[in-house]
Model the fold of this input.
Amino acid sequence: MIIEFNPVSKLAELTVTPPKPAKEYLPDWYKNIKPFHTNPPEFNDLGRPNRTVKMCMPFADSMTSGYIQESWQDINIEVKLSKDGKTEFSYHYPTDPPIMSLRSSNSIINMDNSYQHLDLVWHPQWTPKLPKGYSALYITPLNRHDLPFYTLSGIVDSDSHIQSEKDSNLPFLLKSGFKGVIKKGTPLYQIIPIKRDTWDSKFNEFNEEENIKEVQRLRQYFWGAYKKIHWTKKEYN
Done:
């Protein structure tokens, strides 16, 4: 499958770094996690080693799926309280095309740990074109709780809709207490292609025999059973 990224302007094409595979944005804190809490690993009474999240393939897959749009310039955020207790917010970036803006009316619900009443949006400069039947899931970079913002999620039917420069807006929340510079190269949001389909749901009775078989299959290995038995490599280039 091919995902095509289109610039919203000639300026964007010439100056803005396009989205790149998410696998290129693994943070240092994740790279530095050891696979076990001790070296050599220690085992509990059930024979299970003291693994860390580094051994969790679903966690890794979430961080390496799809594509990341990075900040193509520095952004300086200034926040202070006025005498009447209201939040005074300002931001600056050094050059065009615009990377973010503050909308005049608050149309989103804030989280408890975000600045209230700030309706902020990113301005994507590259938008995806997907094969028929696929949509683009926009989401905050997964498992990146270290970032000072939270990009809100949305699904765009990017097989037929190509966003223009005027309607290219992606809301985000700024975490309370943050002020300073969001540096060039910071991951802003993640784009994951998803296939549209019609789904029906059903509910099965608990199958004790199958459950026992599966547990035993996984416990034949001290670690890595999910990767050995179930995991499928995901490729985004």
Q: What stands out?
A: The CA atoms of residues 24 and 195 lie 23 Å apart.
